């Protein structure tokens, strides 16, 4: 009887453990299934490199190149904000801060991470956009620049906490060896600690990028929404996520537009999936390099 | 001398980067508190909206957010904890575990709007739940599952091996050990993870765009199959729809303050639990 109960629990836990796998496979299946019909009407390359996104025109045009470029511009802009801020903060926390400072600063960064994306979007719309509009004398404050800054601030805590983890794995013996050779703290940081934690830091950057590409509400509210290929950071843009979020409500189930939006989601999913796999791969090699057994 | 100077410049830059990050935090919180507090009143918290969203309160949105969060949590907590227990206590170390671990990591990286599409096709259409609290809760539940699993796993890992071995040596079976020894000592850690995931769910917007949320609902939701107003969606809708942008922005400030207050209260609870637990172990 006891034996039976033990086995029963083992089976229950085993089955429930597969839930994430089931959901992930489910998501992939749904995306492929719902995206497939649009590729019967339009070639994959035409879809990706088509320059015009006019899904509601007669006849409609489904080229998502402007959306892809918008996502790229905004994410790269966000990276320019969050890599220096995030990695710099992580270095400060790990190498310079006293334990007391750290115990105050870290929770503050965690608060930044817990602010909902819609609040960031709101902040971007009502504070940052008017400010930048006045500063640069723009026709509209809702543009790629505003979206980049807002997203960048949002991704900073992500980058910071992963980079900080990586830095904390660097054994103290590395630092002590460097000091013993006569290097000062800054030289040790630049020539020993950062190279040792390099791949961990690049994992942080990749995951930050992945987060920025996939973020929806902020760009939906702040980026401006024009589906044209951006020429400068001051242009209003429509990244892939915001196209899906803004247009899904207005399409009818099973129309070409509906399937095209799923195709965008599929491309988005594959991109972030690729980023995550690369990050996973790098961080595994990094741990091996430092002799960590995880 | 030059070495000293470079060091000083370098350290200043690092301090500057964390300073700028925190400045942004303070600006965001400052604006929302200063402008939001003017709107907050007893009426705002307890009354439904009136006059095309320009008067009255946001009570239905607050209640709706509580419903959705609660629904997501009762769906994903048992699943997440069970998965963590399996990975930590039962799993053989082979490729199956690697596949599960990989899928958890990747599920955590899926953009939130993609969860929304999944919920729309599966829960709203295929299962026929419609745009409802149920569909929204399930979608949010899947989104937050990886967070719960990794938090619980971390808590289980922290339980020392000697406890486990002592229990097994006393003749307890595996399940008895898990239930009476491991889970109680991992509980504070698991709890922290759960609370943080509640904060995450409460603020998510994209997954409920097509699965649960509406801008205006007459009265309160009557069952798990009704549509629902939600605080984060309400903020978005106030800023992008409607015909009185100025008045709506004012109300959106109030909504942001409530949402921020809820989320920060939740993470503060988690931080306090974590610190108590740390003191306990020291």
Which characteristics define this entry?
heterodimer; A: 294 residues; mainly alpha; MetI-like fold; two-stranded antiparallel ribbon; 2 strands; B: 282 residues; globular
Strand arrangement, largest sheet of chain B?
1-2
- What's the CATH C level of chain B? Mainly Alpha
Q: Which ranges of chain A are low-confidence, i.e. pLDDT below 50, for 5 or more consecutive residues?
A: none
Count of strand segments of chain B: 2
- The topology string of helices and strands of chain B comes to HHEEHHHHHHHH
Shape of chain B: globular
Helix content percent band of chain A: over 70%
Task: Describe, in plain words, how this protein is organized in 3D.
The complex is a heterodimer of chains A (294) and B (282). A two-stranded antiparallel sheet of chain A has the order 1-2. Chain A has 294 residues and is an all-alpha fold. Chain A is globular, with a radius of gyration of 23 Å. The mean pLDDT of chain A is 89. Chain A has one domain (64-289): MetI-like (MetI-like fold, Orthogonal Bundle), CATH 1.10.3720.10. Chain A has helices at 2-17, 19-41, 44-49, 65-96, 99-114, 117-136, 144-168, 172-180, 185-214, 217-222, 240-247, 256-289; strands at 53-54, 61-62. Chain B has one domain: MetI-like fold (Orthogonal Bundle), CATH 1.10.3720. Chain B contains 10 helices and 2 strands; from the N terminus they run ααββαααααααα. Chain B has a two-stranded antiparallel ribbon. In chain B, a hairpin with a 4-residue loop joins strand 1 (49-50) and strand 2 (55-56). Chains A and B meet through helix 1, helix 2, helix 4, helix 5 and helix 6 of A and helix 1, helix 3, helix 4, helix 5 and helix 6 of B.
